[in-house]
Amino acid sequence: MQFVRFLERPGLRFRSWSQMAAPAGILYLLATLVAPCPVRAQKGVSTSDSAAGKRATLRLIPQPREVSHDKLVSLAHGVVVRVDSSDAQDRFAADDLRQALSSREVRPSSTDPQRLQIELLRASEPRARRLLSAGAVQFDDAMKPEGYVLLPGAHSLAIIASSAEGMFYGAQTVKQLVVGSGRSAQIHSVLVRDWPALRYRGISDDLSRGPVPTLEYQKRQVRIFSAFKINIYSPYFESTLAYSGNPLAASPGGAMTRSDVEQLVRYAGQYHVTVVPEQEAFGHLHNVLTYEQYAPLAETPHGHVLAPGQPGSIALITQWFTEIAGMFPGPFVHIGADETFDLGRGQTSAEVQQKGLGATYVAFLKQIRNALQPLNKKILFWGDLAWNDPALVKTLPKDMIAVPWVYGPQPKGFARFILPFKEAGMETWVAPGVSNWNRVYPNNNTALLNIQGFVRDGQRLGSTGALTTVWDDDGEGLFDQDWYGVIFSAAASWQPGESSIEQFQQSYGAVFHGDATGKIDEAERELAAAHAILAKADLGDASNRLFWMDPWSVEGKIAAKKLRPVVHDFRLHAERAMILLAEAESQQKLRESDTLRGMELGARRMDLIGLKFQLSDEIILGYGRAYAEQKDSKLADNLANELYDIAGNNGRCQDILSGYSANRDLYEQAWLRENRTYWLHNVLARYDHAMDLWLGRRERVTGIIDQWYRTRTLPRPEDVGIPASLND
Q1: What is the CATH number of domain 66-194?
Q2: Fewer beta carbons below 10 Å: N end or C end of the chain?
Q3: Cis (ω within 30 of 0) for the bond into 62?
């Protein structure tokens, strides 16, 4: 088998060759994402305001399967939430709902006869059976694991479920039915029958290449995941889980401890979220293999891959996962095993030459599976194999769960990534991505199409789960910028068939942030449009690479030429997003403000990309004019102004310096809202380096100004590090 070698350039990584198909998604974006979309009532829902006679819009994420009989009911008389069950999980669901209503300033009331009574009932209870029978509502077997019914009455709303999960998810839908707050709050009184399309709906979060969240932030993640019916949280570890048996590799200040894990697992369990640990067990182990203790296990010196032929490799993996099994009580473990690029380049070169790369890979995967069998866990692994040698898939153990991953839109569909495992009789979960890695803000043009198509095809081909990925390849990612893609993945995983991007775009701001103006949804479209402009200009998208790039470097000059025709519109989209966010927040009290700060930071970093390239061009042109005018005494004042426009307090060098400085502060604040301090200074050092670069250029031109007043001569542009022309 010949493995795909992924295209890599400094600061830019394609996680799959298929990501090269992204331009097809851009055409879709230009047609549907950029322009504001008209709001449409959900099919099958009568949207009427019984009090005022105005049409109301029902926005829910995920959209329930069946919704009818909608009307708006005032909550001015208060609410009482009742649960007669002695089940602790049902009572937790009731308390969680009460807290949500309280946060919306909906007052509790047990005496007002016009109050709304919300009941949580198990489907087996006599009262639930009577209500279902009276309403002619079926509670089918397919609904029992996680489904629920919402049954409205004159002054009541019943949540009926067969399981604690169903009860909790019904309560989450009720939260979204509330519009407004305080005495003006209303609730959509609706009949709902709902259950998920996929049993496992998960998020994989990279904790190993930069940001490591605090335990408190992980708890916030769990709460939000569960509110949108996500039930799997998979933290990704390379060297950021502390093992007592192998303590050396855990990053100081940047690793989860056993105590952290125990608290997180216990907390997540209340919200029906299973924590599925992913410990890389083959590739992606550079941070472990840099230690001399593990040098004999490395395929190549200080490389990335464990050598299959070394007995110590299986011993290390077994030790890790034995501890993992004791910390994480859930039924799954994830062993990774993707991107084993070093395999065959070192210790196993002879074996690979004899047996082939694919056969060597599969043999070690089987060894790992056999070693971990006594732990009685279902083993997930990344499904790279389907790309390279589908025939070898048939030789894999059938009790493993394959997780094929592809991160770009696929005009021909995603079946070819799933079918090799399905035809081999293996369970599959599909893994789209939120397209956050290496970007100043996620490229949701790519992400939404990728999630929509991959989850749709996974459902059609019998996948039991979706594990949407968040990666931090260059160490700069902020999870508070990723919620848009994460929540769309929640919708796509719960809803049957192909989820509507348009419908999601019209609902996100209202559901997640409580935005009644639509401005947050519009701001998201503006940032998507900014990405699309760069894609059309053959610049990829708004990447961290562009953000850090020196416009006068070799690659910077190439990028500048492509950016010049579009930079005006690019900046306007980013700035329009900032304006919309400010307007939305000034007009109402919004929820999840930290996520809005992450969005604002993304827009500001986009804007600085454009400004930096514009100002760099202006410096080239300004210095060129000054150099040409130096022998004309009549133009002396103009020449001095040209130089001060470059190096003065309000000069272009200072503008770029100030831009990086302001973004540095905002970035540090955003990082510390969610992450431990570990790794932060690796990123801040890049801000400091960029600031030093432009400070140095300002100081050089300041010295040239002094020289001009002394000698009335200027050095050539190239002698002071300024290109002689835009085409230089």
Answers
A1: 3.30.379.10
A2: C
A3: yes
